[in-house]
What does this fold into?
Amino acid sequence: MKVISVVNQKGGCGKTITAVNLAAALSKMNQKVLLIDLDPQAHATFALKKESDFTITDILEKTTQNQQIHQKDIYREVSPSLYFIGSSIGLASLEHTLSTRNDKIDVLKKFLDKAGNNFDYAVLDCPPNLGLLTLNALAASTYALIPINTCYFSLRGTAILKDILGMLKEHKQTAPGAFYLLSQVDLRSSFSRIFVDKIKDELGNLLLNTIIRTNTQLREAASGGQHIFDYKSDSRGACDFMSLAEEVNSLSSETNWTPLFLRKNGLSEVYVVGDFTDWKKNEEFKLKKIGDDLWNINLQLNKGQYRYKFLTGQDWIIDPYNKKTEDDPFGGKNSVLIVK
Ligand SMILES: Nc1ncnc2c1ncn2[C@@H]1O[C@H](COP(=O)(O)OP(=O)(O)OP(=O)(O)O)[C@@H](O)[C@H]1O
Ligand SMILES: [Mg+2]
It folds into this structure.
């Protein structure tokens, strides 16, 4: 099962609309999808009119207590192939309880590892902060999908989020591949068009090609308790979310996206250089600066084993987040990456 967190600590940038309608679009492509509302505000739960007595709060609580969860309690069917687990305000106090545990960021993953056999995708609607619920989501995810709207702050705020992905990589040896999604874009406005071009330059291949345009019917669907395909399947919103699902599905059918990070002060540029670049510097393999001293690239490689290093000016550095190394012919070390 592929797990996608829809995440951005900035409020109102389109997380819930994206999570609900991406999940619905994936289900229309015959994928079996589990959508989970991980936000104590429970917006996704209201947007689908699926309030219930048994929520993600109960599931996480029972998981921490190693209690059995009955399958019939877990999922509400929304439409064919789309299943849902709702949230409740009680999730906020559960987050508090989690903070005292050693496995505080692994509880959701524990549940999803068990539930995973039944689904192709899980889509997680995260709250607008980087607390323990969001960390649980990221620790369980294959991809972090970061919606940004045409307000520059929605992008600037994501530097801390990328720091957290770096920390996950450091502590857990693994982090979800992060991709940005432009959302609520009004392509008729010249400001938006300029913004889109600027963001494309800034984010390069970290930005998905699909753009979610502003569409009132997306808002109407949510207030009427439906996803867009049940509300108006021939709308612009439905069309955009179908393109997004196709793009996400093509990303994830290639199991070979590997995020690499380097944290180092005072660098002006960083490249990853390895046997996949013939050990030459190549603009396609230039890392993006995503925080004060944090650099990132999502590598797309075919299955296989690769040797690489980071090249920063004149210095060759092995990947500090990758413990797997091999001797190089010059008496030093190369980092080794195995893409399965
Ligand atoms: N593409 C769109 N077209 C029109 N309205 C949209 C679009 N995307 C989101 N909206 C509206 O913008 C508002 C914020 O969207 P949404 O609730 O998805 O953001 P959020 O990031 O989940 O917010 P929060 O951080 O509070 O959870 C909602 O009223 C939603 O209906
Ligand atoms: Mg929301």
Observations:
- The chain has a mean pLDDT of 90.
- The longest helix spans residues 236-253.
